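=== Structure Prediction Worksheet ===
Name of assembly: unnamed complex
Input type: mixed (protein and possibly other molecules)
Chain count: two
Listed entries:
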Amino acid sequence: MSERRTPAAATAARPPATDDGEAGTRRDRAGSTGPGRRSRPRLRPGWFQDYGVYAAIVLVLVVALVTTPGFVSLGGLRTQLIQVVPVLVVSLGMALVIGTEGIDLSVGSVMAVSAAVLPLYLGYGAVGGLLAVVVVGVVTGSVAGSLVAFVRVQPIVATLALLVGLRGLATVVGGGRQTQIINPTVLQLGRGEVLGVPYVVVVAAVLVVVVALVVQRTTFGRQLVAIGGNRTASRLAGLPVRRVLVTVYVVSGVLAAVAGLLATARLGASTPNTLGELLELSAITAVVIGGTPLSGGRVRVLGTVAGALLVQLITALLISNDLSYATAQMVQAGIIVAAVWIQLGRRRAS
Amino acid sequence: MSSTGSTTAGRRAAPPHRGEEPGSRGEPGEPVLEVRGVVKEFPGARALDDVDFTLRRGEVHALVGENGAGKSTLIKVLTGVHRADEGEVRYRGERVRFTKPSEAQDAGISTIYQEVNLVGLQSVARNVFLGREPRTRLGLVDFRRMNRDAGALLADLGVPVDPTRPLRTLGLGTQQMVALARAVSTDAQVLVMDEPTSSLEPREVEVLFATMDRLHASGVAIVYVSHRMDELYRVCDRVTVMRDGRVVHTGELAGLERLELVRLMLGRSVDARTERSRDDGQTSSDEAPVLEVDGLRSGTSVRDVTFSVAPGEVVGLGGLLGAGRTETVKAVAGALPVDDGQVRVRGSRLRPGRPAGSLRAGVAMLAEDRKTEGIVPGLSVRENIVLAALPRLSPGGLVSRARQDAVVETFVRRLRIKVSSPEQPVSELSGGNQQKVLLARWLATHPTVLLLDEPTRGIDVGAKAEVQGLVDELAAEGLGVVLISSELDELVRGADRVVVLREGAVAGELTGALVREDELMSVIAGAADRDGARACAGAPDGPAGGGTSTGPTTSRTTGGAR
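=== Predicted Assembly ===
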């Protein structure tokens, strides 16, 4: 088959092949004598692609410091952290799914179902509500994962169906109206704090650490990345491809459901009609800006956190400067394009 | 049409109309398509080097050569996909320069590809007339006429199908016929067929050949690309052999011995005998086989394959491209579904179609395509090496760097993988080192059987020797190895026995002193002469099947040869 590839594709596909032996040994020699010489020319573009998002956050903060008094203050930043929590938690699951070369559009609707189900089970106490929320995540995630792994529906189609269907389900379950939350534990979760840090932020931080460890330190995490990087090779290497895929969507579902719980707790009311609308897009934005390529094979958890924060900060900064939310949206579009463009640069470089 | 006159006894069944009235398409024998001194360069490679090629009116011209010989490039130059850098293409006496495939098609050069290149969801009739639909006076597609014409056309080709059916509901063979009908309906003068039978059932092949005979009779010139010797001798008049971008032979096919043809393709002379460097040992005879493959059938490429491998034995799989070697090892490794037959590892039967299961049972396969089936590009050398062994190295599902590092260090040292650090991205390595990384991946799973599919393809000479040496070492340690290589000397040098496949079935087996390039070549060619017979005669004495009764392997040879 390689014979009939176009020349451009052939060379693009295997850059080292043309100068196989020579370059290989030269490279290796350079590597063994001192890695510095070889890596220096690659440092600049690579650095920007990997850490550009953090630099952008610093830049935004500096701009805010100069232009918007009061924005960069303890209270101000605290507000931003609280507001970013739902998107952030959803983005963590999204990063895993994208790492497998998939996508999960259902997350916003899962949040809504979670919010709709929560008040129904708070009669069993806060623990009952939490369990119900987790079950929502597991069930919706299993459906999405099974469609992708076993029925082999494309992820975007499978989760698009769930996006629509679950939004409807949320409206049905929630009776189409807002429900006040009166359970004190849930309200405490939404409004309380420990050592000045809001509970929701603590929960989000714990989840970030757990997901980061899962990706880096568990077989599941490494297999997930390998499957995203080369599915055929992973299958041939005996990896449980379908099991990993289903699990990934379950994790994403549970994280979305938990995000629904946190958002509801913060609001003090269950609003299944509107909760999580378009949130899947914000999550995808955060993941992409954070340096996880949509083509899979790589998951950057901290980058995703930074991506979510960056979008949040920029939006907030624009709004506090009396620009409309519509303007913020347009700026967000610019950021997405810029992030993807920088990603493309990475692929060209490597 | 002097060629047909010289048809020698029974080499091919003469088509009914051969040599009769050529119809209105001009004199037979005069060149319809000529290529003179064509050069085509791709970055880093000269795909065509001063190629001359002449296609005569009303002939079936075989174009053969191993992978990378330049056949596909030549076809693409003929059909307007590529443009030649130098030289000229003359079509019907005039110099032409097609800039895109549709121009060649409009001029009467049609191509039928290996895989059907049509729109599966649309009707047969639409596919036949795609882009040239008959119109009504209002400029709308005239479906009635289109269906009627398509139906007539297909019936004329001997394939009566309902032209309104969606194409994909038809069998592959019939789809291929629709592609052919499309080519015919464009009033093609020249038909290029690129391995048209590779995905067809034997019965479908017959239909295709019958249709080709009709076209041939009406004066259409056909360029026929195939790796199947029997087909070539059956349908082709003349042959052009390509190797390394050059034409090494052009002439009548009938007078050319099969052995000679294979020799031309592979570029070796029969005298070149490389003796095996390993001892003609008594490696295999006593011990129970680690791998037994019995009557394996998988899709259209593996029809009936039986062989076994003893511990410490290297069994070569020989044969031309498309003989089913890769598919055989893939089926054994669980990467392809198995339709019939069974695979046993250390006596216990494998569940087919499950790579993970095969791996657990001790079967590891180094796949042919390093890029798409081996390397995980985003990961480091370390992670690529431990990929398959990850569960074993990770107690409780938690990754243990210490265990990984131990394994990685062992293999980096043993296989002499050149890396600046195990954390280096694998995509930065040279081809040879990537191959070693993959070899390390499989060895880290402690396999009992190692399937190596073209392990030295595309790697430099030094790495090649190292990999070959390593295979010897591994076998000496008791591993059963199956080695696929298109390079005869590699097979002869590395293997204790060579099982030759032809068209998905075992065509013969060479053992002991008969593992020589000349013998191998004659079995690959399927020569019905004494060479082949001698090669086969040696086999029954050999330790075929490691003592178990998989005997038919050898007797099948003679069946194929006569």
